[in-house]
Specification:
The chain is 29% helix and 33% strand. With 252 residues, it is an alpha/beta fold. It has two domains: 2-145 and 202-250, Rossmann fold (3-Layer(aba) Sandwich); 150-193, no CATH class. The two termini are 31 Å apart.
């Protein structure tokens, strides 16, 4: 995970500006009801794994949640601490060696965190760590990028270069395939050019990892955005949706 840590330490100074268009309040307005339909309470304790600069904190704090955040990158944690001070406990932690911070009603890893798990066995180890942090009846939520997203953001076709302000995201991979690993590069003003390497996790692989980690699969929903709204679909479609949302709970 050292390459991921290094990438996000470099990304941290511009991360919030680069991702300013991401509307967490809108996302949660669609995601949280799906969890509540499956038994999650309106508020409780949340472990935000891969919390980054804490962009998900404010919407959850407003809803009355108590949050513990952790991230692999010291640079991202420092940005989160600068914004939230002591309001949210924060720690530097590797998802594949996740400490037990306590018992949480919800443990999540959002915004393609699990796609940075590129080694064999990494996903199972990560899910085991997330399960170890669950309170009785608690739930796990994470998203995984689809092949459609990798096609549009990680391949080197000309139209797949994306500019945000003074920064550029450019796919480096020649093609995508199920279960493959792909790279993209970020460059521009105020950021050291660096690459992001991610792995595609097919739904069947995720189901197997959940089972191996002692988690019970509850749902896999396709997520995409259109006309300023989040669209969740069951079943998910790798060629239509941007992400697959996975929901699970601890096994008996």
């Amino acid at each position: 995970m050292s390459d991921t840590r290094s990438a996000y330490d470099r990304f941290a100074p511009i991360y919030d500006e680069f991702n300013a268009a991401n509307d967490y309040e809108m996302w949660f307005g669609f995601l949280l009801p799906e969890l509540e339909k499956r038994g999650l309470g309106k508020a409780g304790r949340l472990l935000d794994v891969g919390c980054g600069t804490g962009r998900a904190f404010a919407p959850m704090l407003r809803r009355g949640w108590e949050i513990q955040g952790c991230d692999l990158s010291p640079g991202m944690i420092e940005e989160a601490r600068r914004k939230f001070g002591d309001a949210v406990p924060l720690a530097v932690a590797d998802l594949t060696e996740l400490p037990t911070f306590g018992e949480f009603d919800l443990v999540w890893a959002l915004n393609d965190v699990v796609n940075y798990l590129t080694g064999d066995g990494d996903l199972v180890r990560a899910l085991e760590g997330m399960r170890a942090n669950l309170a009785p009846g608690g739930m796990v939520l994470f998203d995984a990028n689809t092949l459609a997203l990798f096609d549009s953001h990680f391949t080197d076709e000309g139209e797949n270069e994306m500019s945000v302000g003074e920064w550029h995201w450019r796919g480096l991979s020649k093609a995508t395939e199920p279960g493959g690993a792909f790279e993209a590069e970020i460059s521009g003003s105020g950021v050291e050019t660096h690459a992001h390497r991610q792995r595609h996790h097919p739904a069947e692989q995720v189901r197997g990892a959940l089972d191996a980690a002692g988690l019970v699969h509850l749902a896999s929903l396709g997520q995409r955005e259109a006309d300023g709204k989040v669209i969740l679909s069951d079943p998910a479609d790798e060629q239509r949706d941007h992400k697959t949302i996975h929901i699970a709970r601890a096994g008996d």
